[in-house]
Every structure is written in structure tokens, then in C-alpha cells.
Amino acid sequence: MRILVTGKEGQVDTSLQVLGQKLGLEIIRIGLPEIDLSQPESLEPPVREARPDVIISSAAYTAVDKAETETELAQKINGDAPGVLARLAAELDIPILHLSTDYVFAGDKADAYTEADMPAPVSVYGKTKLSGETQIRAATDNHVILRTAWVYSPYGNNFVKTMLRLGETRDEVSVVADQHGCPTYALEIARALLAIAQQVVIDRDPTIRGTFHLTGQGETTWAEFATAIFKGAEKRGRKPVRVNPITTADYPTPAKRPANSRLNGDKLDDTFGLRLDPWPTSLDDCLDRLIGPKEEDPS
Ligand SMILES: NC(=O)C1=CN([C@@H]2O[C@H](COP(=O)(O)OP(=O)(O)OC[C@H]3O[C@@H](n4cnc5c(N)ncnc54)[C@H](OP(=O)(O)O)[C@@H]3O)[C@@H](O)[C@H]2O)C=CC1
Ligand SMILES: Cc1cn([C@H]2C[C@H](O)[C@@H](COP(=O)(O)OP(=O)(O)O[C@H]3O[C@@H](C)C(=O)[C@@H](O)[C@H]3O)O2)c(=O)[nH]c1=O
């Protein structure tokens, strides 16, 4: 099976490459400089040439705060490029898997969001990602849109790596404690994407198409997540770092973020029999890869 993936240095595309190689799958990654999603038509030649069995649309403009001022660029990359990719998938009569985000939701719901809930993004990033979803749905029914959240991994940039970097020079870090979500490990996303890709390539059943939520099991806040990262790092020989829990108002940012962006993953489990590992289990694996194994307990 030939799997075309957009993105070359990102968290999910690298995880797909790492896992795909292990499983003996042919992963073809396309990205800068040969294609530039801000010029979506640049996708056409490499996609046609690759003749893939399935497309995974992973690349995106993910700088949430910068998107507030680079609105047009974010719209081209997150909104229009997935639309072009989906039209190409339709023309080639192949399925497209696309990653979207928890930030399509406003964050004012008390419970975890389901696929039946109405998106109402509060940031430019969220709005442009929602536009990508809409353009994909308009282009082809042969799609699987997977909304994920709070992605971390040994690759690219993410919150875990930011905390570890800050912890090198500080004894205390202030982190917001009133935003709730589900940290998700990119290698687990890759595992799910490859399993779903294999199913949709051989099975045209419309019930395994549509929109699904895909996050690590469990929920937390950024402050609790940071605490777990520093505890895990300490078990691997790093110095202790205290987390000072603060409110969103104490940490002003250009982009507004949802207070609650927890996603309910039941539909994915019911449809594909897939549940990702709990986030603390995946965080352990990520820290093993970033720092090394836990030190022996002397007792
Ligand atoms: N990160 C997160 O917390 C979350 C991510 N998602 C979604 O999951 C998907 C994967 O995210 P993740 O792997 O973390 O993203 P990353 O930011 O790690 O990677 C994004 C990839 O997109 C590429 N890219 C950006 N701009 C362009 C462009 N103009 N032309 C070609 N390629 C470009 C980047 O290339 P380069 O490195 O060269 O810039 C990089 O390979 C995205 O669709 C994202 O919206 C959803 C929820 C949470
Ligand atoms: C670095 C830092 C961040 N924060 C806050 C800011 C923010 O509210 C929260 C997370 O910060 P970040 O900027 O790392 O994360 P952010 O860019 O908001 O992450 C989002 O990325 C996009 C791509 C998504 O799709 C989302 O699911 C989500 O993962 O933590 C602190 O409170 N203290 C800190 O020292």
C-alpha cells in the first residue's frame, strides 16, 4: 500500500514515517521545499506522480498565536490546501484521511465534545482548520476527518519539549490550570491512522467514513500535564521543577484557547475498534525517547 503524507518534519508525519517503516509500508512524504501548501496548486504534480492508494493530510500551519496575524497564510495552508488535496483524492478515486483539531470548538461545554457538537472556533487557527474540514466534506464523501488534540512526541515542536527546555534553566514554571484537554501522542495517532488507512483502502463502506475524535485516553489541564512532565523528567535524573498553577487571564496570549476541549472518542472505538493508550503511558514512552529510561529506585 502506497500512502502519501503531507509534511516532512512535523510530529505526525515523522511518526507515520517511523511506524510505517517498522510495518513495511510505503510512506511517501511530501513537503517544503518541493511543495508549498500556501500555493495549494503545487500539490497537484507530486500527488499525481505518486499514484497513492490513500492520502493522509497532516501538514498544517500550527502556530496558534501567529495565525492571529498571518490569517491569510493560515487559511491557505489549513483551509484551501486540504480542499485541493481532497479534490485530487476524488479524481484519483482514493480515500483521504485528514487531521483536524479540538480548537474547532468554543470550549464552553461542560462535558467532552462529541462529533455531533457544533464547532464554533474562537481562534484564527481553529477557524482555518474548520474551513479545511468543510472543504474536504464538499470535495469527497470518501474521507475520514480525525480531530485530535494537544499533540506531543519526540519530534518537532510541542508542549513537552517546551517544558523540558524551560526546566533546564528554571526551578519553577507558571502554567495555566483552567484549560482542560486530552494530550495525544503522535506515535499513537500514527498507529491509528495506519490502521484506519488499511481499512478504508479495502472497504468502501460509508459507515467507516466521516468525522471522528482521536485523542489519548484521559484528560488533564496544561498545569497538571506540566507537573507530570517534570515528575517524569525527575525520575530520569533531571532536577525538580515546580509548577505554579495560574489562570488563563494570568497568561495573556494573542489567540484565545478553549477552556474545555476534551474530545469523546467513543465513535472511533465503536467504528474502528480503536482506543489510544492513556496519555500518562504515552508520556512515559515519549520521555524514555527524549531523555532515557527511568533511573533505578535505590530502595
Ligand atoms: N500539534 C498539535 O498540538 C495538534 C495538531 N493537530 C493537527 O494535526 C496535524 C499534524 O500536526 P503536527 O504534526 O503536530 O504539526 P507540526 O507543526 O509538527 O507539523 C506541521 C507540518 O506541516 C508542514 N508545513 C507547514 N507549512 C507548510 C507549507 N506551507 N507547505 C508545506 N508544508 C508545510 C511543516 O513543515 P515545516 O516543518 O518544514 O514547516 C510540518 O512538516 C495538523 O493538521 C494539525 O493541525 C491537531 C490538534 C493538535
Ligand atoms: C509555554 C507555556 C504555555 N502556557 C499555556 C499557553 C496555552 O494556554 C497552553 C498551551 O500552550 P502551547 O502554546 O504550547 O499550546 P497550543 O499552541 O495552544 O497547543 C495547541 O496547538 C494546536 C496546533 C492544536 O491543535 C491544539 O490541540 C493544541 O495542542 O499553555 C503556560 O501557561 N505557561 C507556559 O510556560
TrEMBL record:
Catalyzes the reduction of dTDP-6-deoxy-L-lyxo-4-hexulose to yield dTDP-L-rhamnose. InterPro entries: dTDP_dehydrorham_reduct, NAD(P)-bd_dom_sf, RmlD-like-bd. PANTHER family: DTDP-4-DEHYDRORHAMNOSE REDUCTASE, METHIONINE ADENOSYLTRANSFERASE 2 SUBUNIT BETA. GO terms for molecular function: dTDP-4-dehydrorhamnose reductase activity. Keywords: NADP, Oxidoreductase. Gene3D superfamilies: NAD(P)-binding Rossmann-like Domain, UDP-galactose 4-epimerase, domain 1. Its EC number is 1.1.1.133. This is dTDP-4-dehydrorhamnose reductase. Pathway: Carbohydrate biosynthesis; dTDP-L-rhamnose biosynthesis. Its cofactor is Mg(2+). It holds the Pfam family RmlD_sub_bind. The lineage of its organism: Bacteria, Pseudomonadati, Pseudomonadota, Alphaproteobacteria, Caulobacterales. Residues 244-264 are annotated as: Disordered. The keyword Oxidoreductase applies. Belongs to the dTDP-4-dehydrorhamnose reductase family. It is an enzyme of class 1 (oxidoreductase). Residues 1-290 form the RmlD-like substrate binding domain. It catalyses: dTDP-beta-L-rhamnose + NADP(+) = dTDP-4-dehydro-beta-L-rhamnose + NADPH + H(+). The keyword NADP applies. GO terms for biological process: dTDP-rhamnose biosynthetic process. It comes from the Bacteria. Binds 1 Mg(2+) ion per monomer.
